[in-house]
Amino acid sequence: MQNAVLRMRGIYKSFPGVRALQNVDFRLCEGEIHALMGENGAGKSTLIKVLTGVYVKESGEINLKGLDKPVTIKSPQEAQKLGISTVYQEITLCPNLTVAENMFIGRTDELIVNWKKRIEKTNVILSSLGIPAKATQQLSSCSIAVQQMVAIARAVDMECKVLILDEPTSSLDDQEVSKLFSLMRDLRDRGVGIIFVTHFLDQVYEVCDKITVLRNGELVGEYLIRDLPRVELVSKMLGKELGDLSSLHNETACDIARQQEIVIEANELSSDSGIKPFNFKTCKGEVTGFAGLLGSGRSECVRAIFGADHVTGGEIKIHGESVRITSPLKAMKKGIGYLSEDRKRDGIIGDLSVRENMILALQVMRGFFKPFSKAQAQAFADEYIKILGIKTASADTPISSLSGGNQQKVILARWLLTHPDYLILDEPTRGIDIGTKVDIQKLVLKLAEEGMSITFISSEIEEMLRTCSRLIVMRDLNIVGEIKGEDMTQDRIMHTIAGGATTHGDS
Question: Most CB atoms within 10 A, among 14, 232, 273, 383?
Answer without folding.
Answer: 273
